[in-house]
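Suppose you are handed a protein chain with no further information: no name, no annotation, nothing but its sequence. What can you learn? This example shows the usual starting point.
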Amino acid sequence: MVEKNSWDSIKERLHSSLTMEAWQNWVARTRFDGYDSGCLRVAVPDDATRFWLESEYAPKVSGAISELRLPVERIQYVLMNGQGTPRAPERIIVNGAPPMNEFQSLSAQLNPRFTFEHFVVGSCNQFAHAAAVAVANSPARSYNPLFIYGGSGMGKTHLVHAIGHALSENFPHFRVAYTTGDRFINEMVQAIRGDRMVAFHQHYRNADALLIDDVHTLAGKERTQEEFFHTFNELYDHQKQIVITSDQLPKNIPGLVERLRSRFEWGLMVDVSAPDLETKMAILDRKAELEGVQLPDEVRVFLATKTRSSVRELEGAFTKLVAYSSVTNSKITIGMAQQALRQMFGGTEKRITIDAIVRAVAERYGMQPAQLKQRSNAQEIARPRQVAMYLCKELTSASLPEIGRHFGGKHHTTVLHSVRKVDELRQLDPDLNRLVHSLIDSLQ
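A reasonable first move is to predict its three-dimensional structure. Written in structure tokens, the prediction is:
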């Protein structure tokens, strides 16, 4: 006779063969529910637990039954719904495969413009781009997994979409699965609720390449991480390419289980950072070419210098400018750009004038404002002038050419050099950094 302690004995065997996390998630909360004619009934708290016991841990359960010499021919998992009866008819794993689930096609999920041809390479992303191209040309041979990390809007999604496009083109018979962390979670939940986990597994674990964007969203979700852990292992063990993006390094993702963290670090980790000025202007050139827009040089410099954080912000400013031009049926000029993007590039700081900055800097250095506009390159004039140009760029909406005209007709490249010089010196010279902070506070 099979009694309650029989399932407890099976649980003890599972406890010794599973990780503590897996045992607590999928076994600890189960209980004996009954036995009849060779069928052992086990009550489980939810569909997810039932699925894991029926699929992932079925061999271990069968092994424990054999070792204990129990007269059990099959196990029926029932939900704890108050009466101890199953929500659905008896499920036998061999013959009870759930119906196939439908997943979006790869082409429907990838942005058609996010290709390698449309990706602008700069010092901020050169290594990541090279690694992505290598993976697309030789999947599972170059870098596996490839882990791309960086802040929001830096181009990670563009790269992973580009890999997807290139894999489909280079290897037409490849099964490429693309998803995001949030979508993976939602699909898993829906699959459990709809008894479609077999289809879920077939979609992801039978892929030749898995591309997952924003994997950090799995953090803190233990059961989803458990599922992704097994998916990762299945693909990696069969030499399938895995590409992952995140907003930070694996070791810095809070709530990420250690075994996933270590696996993410098995391959190559590359970062994408904020674009420098040259890369920003190259991005604008590419966008203008794609849109068939004539972008004056001073407008291009204006957009590149005023956007600070990301490629997404830069592209957003460009899109808003083009839309404004189309709606108002007006030509893109520096004046129009300043008007169209006035709110985007700040509020109260726009009221600060170049003349006010010149007066403040001159007073701080014990000079006359007119001296800052002289053509002299003497150090006692050049350095204050560089500081003034830097503040004009930081605190006003003026373009670099416009700033140059206020300082004796300096070329915008001279202004750009001054901005970079002061930015560099602020990192090296604490006194200069304090002076700049003091000037900013006084002007605002």
